[in-house]
Specification:
Elements: H1 7-29, H2 32-36, H3 38-60, H4 68-85, H5 88-96, H6 98-126, H7 129-133, H8 139-157, E1 170-172, H9 175-200, H10 205-231, E2 234-236, E3 240-245, E4 249-254, E5 258-262, H11 267-270, E6 275-277, E7 286-296, E8 304-311, H12 316-326
Parallel strand pairs: 6-8
Antiparallel strand pairs: 1-2, 2-3, 3-4, 5-7, 7-8
Helix pairs in contact: 1-3, 3-4, 3-5, 4-6, 8-10, 9-10
Length: 327
């Protein structure tokens, strides 16, 4: 049955099913039966964690043949999860079995050394920390972490940075329209942080800390968005037009592929798959018609072909004149 499922759904199941199995096993370690037989419960939970993660790796690997390093990493992760997630009496029983504890420690140590060696080799060949991290973690996880770290950098020190405009390119801003609206959301977010913390703290201090952390992350996200809109303008380069919208959209359009340019587009047209709408919280005032479909590959999401690109500029007239002189 899994073979007939959508590939994305299959991939999600390969992640979700092991997590559910481990969560159920963790609950079982807190049961009365596990308290009466802690050694048996600890071994069963250890086997469940290691086996679930290893089977997920096998199921996701091409032709169900994962690398030995990946399989060892899954088993090592199972050892760590079993140690951290088990109830205290079950965990104590696991450590009391010295041979099992030593085997777990050696498995984790071997996996760490092997993965660090692979990451170091990739870093030496590419010089990129992201590529090095992809030797250990899934590429989607690495990309997500890189985006989050970049967002945090923009939020904290973005005010010190200058707009990203390479030599020879001409920049066209769009942040004067968008940022005031984002600032309103930011103020509302800050008010919400205070109100929610005051209300929830009377019920649960732990829940209040969690919501406070989420609220602060949301505020930093809004600040990073505002900085991104300022730091990443639309660029008219020698042979291409780079349409950007903060951290969310970055598409390079060859000037030779621009067939026509206009300013009007309807809301219904903006929803079509072949239209890339790079105007955030506003309506576009520049619309490009392309001579041929152009591939748009977002950081996250499905790749699609676009034939029209719509965006908004603070001052469209100078851009239109400059682009017309190029095409």
């Amino acid at each position: 049955m899994l073979l007939r499922l959508n590939p994305k759904l299959r991939s999600a199941l390969f992640v979700l099913v092991p997590l559910l199995a481990i969560a159920a096993g963790r609950l079982a370690t807190h049961s009365e039966l596990a308290a009466r037989h802690p050694r048996t419960a600890s071994l069963l939970f250890l086997w469940l964690c290691a086996d679930s993660l290893a089977l997920a790796i096998i199921a996701k690997a091409p032709r169900n043949r994962p690398e030995i390093r990946a399989l060892l990493g899954a088993i090592a992760a199972g050892c760590v999860v079993a140690t951290v997630g088990a109830a205290a009496p079950v965990r104590a029983a696991l450590f009391d079995m010295q041979s099992v504890a030593i085997a777990m420690a050696l498995t984790v140590a071997l996996a760490v050394v092997w993965n660090l060696r692979a990451a170091a080799g990739r870093y030496r060949s590419s010089g990129s920390l992201s590529h090095a991290a992809e030797a250990i973690l899934p590429s989607t996880t690495v990309k997500f972490a890189a985006k989050e770290l970049h967002m945090l950098r923009l939020a904290l020190v973005g005010w010190r940075l200058q707009p990203d405009v390479p030599q020879g390119a001409r920049a066209f801003a769009y942040h004067c329209v968008i940022n005031p609206m984002i600032a309103v959301f930011l103020v509302l977010q800050l008010i919400e942080i205070v109100v929610v913390d005051l209300l929830v703290s009377h019920w649960s201090r732990e829940a209040a800390w969690v919501l406070l952390a989420l609220g602060i992350w949301g505020a930093l996200f809004f600040i990073a968005m505002m900085q991104g809109f300022r730091l990443y303008p639309v660029l008219l380069e020698r042979h291409s037009l780079r349409v950007r919208s903060g951290l969310m959209i970055d598409l390079r359009v060859p000037l030779a592929d621009i067939e026509a340019m206009g300013a009007a587009i309807s809301g219904e047209e903006l929803k079509q798959d072949h239209v890339l709408n790079a105007a955030i919280l506003s309506h576009p005032n520049v619309v490009l018609q392309l001579a041929r479909p152009l591939e748009y590959r977002p950081a996250f999401g499905k790749t699609r072909m676009v034939t029209r690109v719509a965006f908004r500029l603070d001052e469209p007239a100078p851009f239109v004149a400059a682009l017309q002189s190029r095409i």
